[in-house]
Amino acid sequence: PYDTHSLAAAEAWCQQQDYLCGGITLTQGRYEARSGWAPLPSPSGETSWAKLCSPPLLEAWAALLQGRAALGYMPSYNYDVVDVTRQVLSVNYSLAFAEY
Questions:
Q1: What angle do CA 84, 49, 24 make, to 5 degrees?
Q2: Dist CA 98 CA 100 (whole Å)
Q3: Cβ contact 54:37 at 8 Å
Q4: In a 3-state reduction of DSSP, which class is residue 10?
Q5: pTM of this structure
Q6: Dihedral sign (CA 94, 96, 68, 56)
Q7: Any bridge partners for residue 43, and if so which?
């Protein structure tokens, strides 16, 4: 993983990696890219910043919503929209809740 003494450089690198980088972790004075999206407790007191939303989920959500006009009311379509929406909200809520 990418590591540097600069948070700004680590963030820029992480953003360029799209969904392959889930956030940044500060470990012993160095910022390292992390692959996971969900924040986990650190036994060694590391500090992490996670992206607020998984790009693949947002892309799937946007693609599903674009089909709404053409598909109209179809139970399977509605189920998929609700399921992906639940995933997007779950990921974002977990990340935001972990900050408090």
A1: 105
A2: 5
A3: yes
A4: helix
A5: 0.50
A6: negative
A7: none
Partners of 47 in beta bridges: 26
- CA-based angle 8:13:15, to the nearest 5? 95
10, 31 in Cβ contact below 8 A? yes
Using alpha carbons only, what angle is made at residue 72 by residues 68 and 75, rounded to the nearest 5 degrees?
100
Kindly give the confidence (pLDDT) of every residue in the chain, 100 residues in length, as a single tens digit, with 9 standing for 90 and above.
Answer: 566 788 888 888 887 876 678 888 888 889 988 877 666 778 888 888 777 665 666 677 777 788 777 877 788 888 888 887 787 777 666 655 665 5
CA–CA gap between residue 51 and residue 38 (Å, rounded): 9
- Tokens standing for 39? 């924040």
Report the alpha-carbon distance of residue 25 to residue 62 in Å, rounded.
29
DSSP structure string for 50-77? E-SS-HHHHHHHHHHHHTHHHH-S-HHH
